[in-house]
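Q: For a teaching handout, I want to show students what a protein-ligand complex looks like in token form. Below are the inputs, and the small molecule is glutamic acid. Please produce the holo structure.
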Amino acid sequence: MKVRVRFAPSPTGFLHIGGARTALFNWLYARHTGGTFILRIEDTDAARNSLEAVSVILDGLRWLGLDWDEGPVTADATAPGKGNCGPYFQSQRTANYQRRVEALLSRGLAYQHEGAVKFKMQREPVLIKDLVVGDVIRKLTDREEADPDFVILRSDGQPMFHLVNVIDDIEMDVTHVIRGEDHLSNTAKHIALFNAFGVPPPHYAHIPLILNADGSKMSKRDKGASLTSYAADGFLPEAVVNYLCLLGWSPKDNREKLSLAETIERFDLPQILRHNARFDYEKLLWLQGEYSRSLADDRFYELAVHAFARAGMDTNKFPLAYVKAALDTCKGKFKTFQELPSYAGFYFKNEFDYNSDGVKKDFIPENKSRLQKLRDAFAGLDAFTAPNLETALKSTATDLGVKAGVLVHPCRLAATGNTAGPSLYHLLEVLGREKSLARMDRALERF
Ligand code: GLU
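A: Here is the structure, written as tokens, with glutamic acid included.
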């Protein structure tokens, strides 16, 4: 059987992390099996849909690198699907729904009720054979017992979720429905609809929910709930993808950092975990650090320049070699790119405030003559290089009878305004003689 899976979001203006993971698991399964990944926008509820809401989904999938394989050909040059295909939109498929509803009506499997069309739900329990959850026998609830039938076409002609979801799964030959466990409660209705249409239902894999670290349900406002926030917070998509893979799936050897190629090779439905996944921000940060360290230079520069630009700092005003040298001193020193402007902004501005705790600790009277002596030693260097700067600082410390740190801290504060940052000797080398000495002079006036 050739696997065909789909991600079927309703455009709500928000791509929840759980939705992004559902998309990812479907995509991984398609790539693992050599199958087809379909994107279907479930936008029949016209009142709630907007183009912006669709863009949030498309931008999110694009950012994660989840490309879909088929769909109607579109003139939209930004459509990332193969061969220029856009996603399927249910709002463009209403004729199909109409036709199928008529078929149900003519066979007595649905009926008119107050202008709407209701589906005759089967009364017997429904067996759901779920690849993750196991076998579930779903009986009618007490409330359904009174009236098990449900509306499939509203009186205003709008086809309803259960109907369109199933019709499209039939029309698109979907073989596996991989979706959040919150949909398990809908599945009996879906299976009954498949039966009514005379089509065997697909395989189901309902994946556990993502909870907050404290086990509570993740709401829209919770940290990490929106996929869009990860790009804005300076995360790398490859770190987020790796992290999402681990939310509810685990390779047998418990490894955590896995390349996408490896994940595709290993990903399979039986390994999806049954218990709910808890959001672990620390693990995400750890993966972000791992991926940041191994970034190719060009990509690292590009992402860094963007991070500065977002913070209103234009690095293009500086020579490229200077920007690259500055950024090289930051590699592996920060986790998300969002931290970079405050970590290394001193390279790109001469006016900055000094960290106030640092001022209290390091800009103290007894340090003034020490910093002056260090400044003079630096000024006398032939070449303003990291090794020379280090030697000069250490010998000045020896002459003064103090530890190197006594000079390092005020010097760093003078040169950067911060109490922590890139290696002092390297950052001074990058800043160069003129800027470094000017900054030390400026600081000396503060004592
Ligand atoms: N439109 C539904 C949702 O966004 C899709 C459910 C499904 O995957 O079948 O939750």
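A: Two things your students might notice: DSSP finds 18 helices and twelve strands in the chain. The chain has four domains: 4-91+210-278, 93-207, 295-348, 356-444.
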